[in-house]
Amino acid sequence: MRLLFTVVHFFRRGAKGLRNYGSMGSDSTARVRALTDCIAAIHQQFGGAQFSLDHGQRKGLPANEALRHTVDIVVCTVKDMHLLGELPLPAGAYHHQLTEADPTLLGYECHAVLKERLGAYDFYCYLEDDLILHDPLLFMKLNWFNQVTTKDDLLQPNRYEIALKGNVNKVYVDGELPLRSTVRFQKITDHHQIRAKVLGQVVTFQRTLNPHSGAFFLSDSQMRSWVDKPYFLDRSASFIGPPESAATLGIMKTFRVYKPALSNAAFLELQHCGSSYLDLIGRQVPIAGDATPPAPQPSARRVEKPKDPSASVEAAVEEGLQQFDP
Fold first, then answer.
1. CA distance 127 to 141
2. 217 has which bridge partners?
3. Distance spanning both ends of the chain, measured CA to CA
4. Which residues on adjacent β-strands are paired with residue 196?
5. Least enclosed by CB within 10 Å: which of 59, 161, 248, 279?
6. Residue 124 pLDDT
């Protein structure tokens, strides 16, 4: 496949007023490491040269050829307010898109890049600069999901943080928001749940009150659907703030957004650098003593053969995909 990644990156020493942007302060070390890992992981997981060491023949043999893709990465910045000159990456690891944008609206410049290159790629991706992809099967999973649903259904990954110290090793950071935060933009009771059998296990995907992941991965048809909407590139900041809106508002208004349910949260996930959210657990945020009951599921939807033989899920069934009837 052909993959286009856009990465929004801003850093200004001593900057103030850029709430939740993680892009201010005097020490750039953590930000350099995060952006380096973000870009390097894309090449390591989806592109580049991958080999297996054959000791008998004393040769390096090609590996993961079925999972290797053509990758282009565009990092969008504002003027000289960035750290690209400090990255320990080889030449050609990314393309630099220099802009004159308002720093808080920089994410929308990534949207413009995606639109300009529409038609040249199979997936159009957006990443905040402190996110790391570790799953080489990411696009295989997204392709599978797209085949058994419709282009109006979008699967978002769960963001997590990890640590080795303390009693908590991994935390998914984008828990549910109050209803008022997203009720203007989506109706999560519409096809609330999808359940399917994957590799012999039942996997559940749910509509979510917090569709934010700091990232999105759109197929060509999904990208075209969004670009045709009147609000595309409107630079709205009406979902939490400008950075969150750039990452999430447009896709939330365009698609039925799902995430893997907590019972199988790791089915699709990406790492958020640092432990700022994880450190809240057990301190400002108590650990629940009892299991939380599942959210109401007013309109559960199964991946099954529909009555309409022309439906897209029908085609997936005919191709031999395993279906599950819970």
1. 18
2. 125
3. 33
4. 203
5. 59
6. 98
Residues 296, 309: Cα–Cα separation, whole Å? 30
* Residue range 134-192, pLDDT digits in tens: 999 999 999 999 999 999 999 999 999 999 877 789 999 999 999 999 999 999 999 99
Strands 12-13 and 24-25, bridge-based pairing: parallel
User: Do 194 and 297 meet the contact criterion of CB atoms below 8 Å apart?
Assistant: no
Dihedral of alpha carbons 252, 258, 264, 267, sign: negative
Residue whose C-alpha is closest to residue 163's, from 274, 262, 264: 274
One-letter amino acid for residue 141 of the chain: K
Q: Is the pLDDT score of 319 beyond 50? A: no
**pLDDT given for residue 164 in this prediction:** 83
Q: What single string gives the DSSP state of each residue in 193-224?
A: EEEEEETTEEEEEEE-S----SEEEEEHHHHH
- SS3 for 33-45 is HHHHHHHHHHHHH
What would the two tokens of residue 24 be? 């201010």
Place of tokens 């934010």: 212
Per-residue pLDDT at 310: 33
